[in-house]
Amino acid sequence: MRAFTTLTGVAAPLPMANVDTDKIIPARFLKTIERKGLGRAAFADMRFNDDGSEKPDFVLNQEPYRHAEVLIAHENFGCGSSREHAPWALLDFGIRCVIAPDFADIFFNNSFKNGILPIKLSREICDTLMEDAKMGANARISVDLARQIVIRPNGEEIPFEVDPLRKHRLLNGLDDIGETMQRASAIENFENGQRAAQPWLYG
Q: Subunit info (predicted)?
């Protein structure tokens, strides 16, 4: 998993509450277990017409937001069904951080496991960041995970909370398997001890 340390990039304003996982990636795209290529399907029904042409009014079809790395939304982001394809699609599109007042629990957990940083900030602050984002490419937002701050284009620093273990994992690019493999020597030593103490269990 790609480590998340600091990020400075274009932020896309999405002033919507209850953005569910079917909006993030519609159910018809769930047939694959491949993570690559799902960026095309991110917000597909909001981005594209039935003939495949782009809907020009949707923010991610506009410059500079086609290249957004931060998404700012309203309450209950990621609600709905528990599809891990949702963070896969966002990440493949290029979104590495989502800022909202709150998130659905399963989406929140899946984001950390896939290298996306979900940040909870008040509705008032989210609205302020959206106004910043509307200024386009000249108003990049910075996210410093080590210091736990979001930096507005004017330099104002906004603190955020994050679970220490999840922070450690993101900073070091560790998913669940990577976290386990850090303890590979201890696991091997334990297994060797079990084999010595109970050899009949290991044939």
A: Heterodimer of LeuC and LeuD.
Task: Determine phi and psi for 11, rounding to 5 degrees.
Answer: -110, 135
- Spell out the residues 6+ positions from residue 174 whose beta carbon is closer than 8 angstroms to its own: 1, 168, 182
pLDDT per position in the chain (203 positions), as tens?
Answer: 889 999 999 999 999 999 999 999 999 998 877 778 899 999 999 999 999 999 999 999 999 999 999 999 999 999 998 889 999 999 999 999 999 999 999 999 999 999 999 999 999 999 999 999 999 887 899 999 999 999 999 999 999 999 999 999 999 998 655 554 455 465 555 565 556 666 666 66
Strand order in the sheet with 70-73: 11-14, 70-73, 97-100, 117-120
Residue 182 is encoded by which pair of tokens?
């850090």
Q: Is 68 exposed, middle or buried (0-12, 13-18, 19+ CB in 10 A)?
A: buried
CA-CA distance, 75 to 41, in Å (whole number)?
23
Query: Angle, nearest 10°, between helix axes 105-113 and 164-172?
Result: 40
The two three-digit tokens of residue 86, written as one number: 């949702």
Instruction: Please tell me what DSSP assigns to residue 66.
Output: G
- Exposed, middle or buried by CB within 10 Å (0-12, 13-18, 19+), for 12? buried
